[in-house]
């Protein structure tokens, strides 16, 4: 079994989605089965990762940052996708935070890494735009000596 943790940007430039999708599919095809994908199901890259894991026959384990996490989604589509993917998850665990915060997001990122064998990140290589961003999660995984695979199209800007 391979547990692949995930962290990625919420706002993906449209022109990069095809490349990002292909690279994630390719990476997930290379990991030992059975495949478990670990994610918080944030809008954007997290939800894309979850769909790819499920399409590849993997199972989904969700780490939810806070009890009011659903209130953080900005569009009805992102919220609907969150609920649909959460409904397909084999496991879901709420962290102890009652309200969404940067601290809750960082804790969720750490929990994803802690439970993963490796981390797959859709990351532009820039510093996090807030505590708990992808850069913070990548740094945490690297600090633990976990394998980190970064997917990002060369030259693409957010």
Mean pLDDT: 97
- What is the CATH class name? Alpha Beta
**Terminal residue distance:** 34 Å
The structural domain count equals 1
- Biggest beta sheet summary: 6 strands, parallel
Number of strands: 6
> In CATH terms, what is the architecture?
3-Layer(aba) Sandwich
Query: What amount of the residues lies in strands?
Result: 15-25%
Shape: globular
Q: Determine the structural class based on helices, strands and strand pairing.
A: alpha/beta
Strand arrangement, largest sheet? 4-3-2-1-5-6
What is the CATH topology classification name? Answer: Rossmann fold
Secondary-structure blueprint:
Elements (H helix, E strand, L loop, with lengths): L1 E7 L8 H13 L5 E5 L5 H11 L3 E8 L9 H13 L2 E7 L4 H14 L2 E5 L11 H10 L3 E5 L7
Parallel strand pairs: 1-2, 1-5, 2-3, 3-4, 5-6
Helix pairs in contact: 1-2, 2-3, 4-5
Task: Give the gist of this structure.
It contains five helices and six strands.
Provide the descriptors you would attach to this structure in a database record.
23% strand, 6 strands, 5 helices, alpha/beta, 39% helix, single chain
Question: Overview of this structure, please?
Answer:
There is one protein chain. The protein is α/β, with parallel strands linked by helices and 158 residues long. It has a single domain, classed as Rossmann fold. 39% of the residues lie in helices and 23% in strands. It has a 6-stranded parallel β-sheet with strand order 4-3-2-1-5-6, sandwiched between helices.
